Amino acid sequence: MEYQANLGSAADVDRPSLFELLAQEQLVQLLQPALKYVLSVLATRYPRYLIRIVNRHEEFYAGLMFFIERHYLQNYGASFAENFYGMKRRRVPRGVPLVRAQAALGPKAPGADLEKLSPAQLRGSLFLLVGLPYLRAKAQELYEIWGGGLEDDLFVAAPAPQPSSDGSTPPPPPPPPLSERAKTIFKRVYPSLNALLEFWLLAYNLRYLFGRTSFYRPWLRWLNVDLRRLSAADYQAMNAPSPSAPPPPRELPALITHHLSHLPSYLLSSLKTALPLTLFALKFLEWWYSPASPRASSAAAQAAAEPTVPPPKPLLPHPESKIPPEHLRFGIDPISGRPLENPTALPSGYVYSYKTVWEVVDKEGRCPVTFQPVSRSQLRKVMP
Fold it and tell me: Bridge-partner residues for 366, per DSSP?
């Protein structure tokens, strides 16, 4: 397993493996459906405030990730998922071979300007982290809404041309509007383009896996940005206070104002700690409410220790009943004295064969043993 995790990175210990990169991508893909599920559950209780957010979830999630990813790119030089898995983005000089670039950047300090992303690279990374997934999600949504994969006339028969009153050929139907033609073209082209993109990404994954490229995504090559593992010096630089930042004030009102102004930054930076705690809490609740948890075992033991309610005493036969006492046995029809066929219970608690008891109830409207009034609708068949 250790060999597989470091496959393709034996010559460069700071180069993340493909499995780490796919893990951080999978984390991002799981966040959106999880957030949508939580919002959907809360919207059932607070529809006035959350139903619009649920209906426009793609836009809401893209706006939320815009602020999160911008914060992490500006402060940590990586996306939220990349920073969570201990990675950073590094600028690669243009026109320099990869070996020379690594040799040039190796001795540099982690916070050196040579490795820091430029403003254009930050904007490009932000678009590719937020804008590209949003566009792909909207394209998939439109493909499903417009009936992608189904022909328009699959379930509707084309109307036969009707001749006019004078026998001449009717004029051809007008061409469809431009919007309908655009929908048709999109439904036919989208699956092929999406498949080509997935194969392109797979080819880059294989090239990165075997060390043929340092960019595991083609747009990282366009931006001249590669991904590296965070070193001990990187963690020290992230935790160290910025030399250009002014010291916090000592007066209490000014100190409170200072922390309130930095509260959004504190909340965004705490996400990398809140995420594993939230996952642990969810797993703990899932275990706690499972049948194998101590809570369920103690509840079952307590229920077993409580006194059980005894069943009610059976009704005694009516003195004028003509049913012989020897017929009141288990598995015997009290009316015929034969084994039960299609057992049917009455509200009195006695079980009969359906055919015999139906005739008696239909004629007399009472239980043959107890003379308790009963109707045909109260007959209940007993499953064997």
Answer: 373
